[in-house]
Amino acid sequence: MNSYLIDSQARVEYILDQSLSNNDVPARLRDAMRYSTLAGGKRIRALLVYAAGFASNAPIEKLDVVACALECIHSYSLIHDDLPSMDDDDLRRGQATSHIQFDEATAILSGDALLTLAFELINDSASPLSDTQCRLISHKLANCAGQVGMVGGQMLDILATQPDLDLNRLDRDALEDIHRKKTGALINASVVCGALCSETVSKTDLISLSNYANNIGLAFQVVDDVLDVESDTQQLGKQAGADNTLGKSTYPELLGLNASKQLAQTLCQDAIDCIASIGDNTRHLVELAALVVNRTH
Fold this sequence. Notes:
The chain is mainly α. Helices cover 69% and strands 1% of the residues.
């Protein structure tokens, strides 16, 4: 990654550490929140916030708040996704998942706390965001993380693995619908909310950035499906082959490995094409598009 993205990664790590150090929070809950959120990770969503904000000339202090909020929501989603009632995973980012390290109740509560913390950060009286930006960004995050976005996609994903419902073999349109919600919605929120930190971003540029994000979000999931087949548990930091174990429909299963890899590359180029007209400050978004499709974990 270039120096801007590396610096941005370090910024959000520092802010997350500070935001998760509230001594008024019960110690076990705070420890669980920190355990999952500060366990590393690529910080792709935070980096997309910074890159979109850079392309839109947004102040970095505003981007800090939104990047931190996105990572809190993402961490909450991973904690809940790993629960026994969901994907029942015992490994995440190379360490025991939250419900294994602590217990199931603590894991659920830490996820709940991270979700609500995201909105607390954005709407805090000390936030550098304007009132209008707080409203727009809060609405966008709630929409993309909630019933018509990530949570709705999770529900569709669960239904698609229920053999008694005869839905576990999806066609391409149905599979894409799941992943545009489950994975893509929060990636879209990252890009759009980063741009909304600018006072001057145009509606035309917001549409272009949203289209970029939609392509990157789908590409991210296609690559995830490929890595689940081709990589190993140590490299992934989570259980390899989990999709097959859970009976999930995936792009490699539907299209084949080579066609899935080509689809990811096509989506990457489509994303880059979407932002070609925005200006000269999109280079970080271009680099992140390549990072998404060429990653190894």
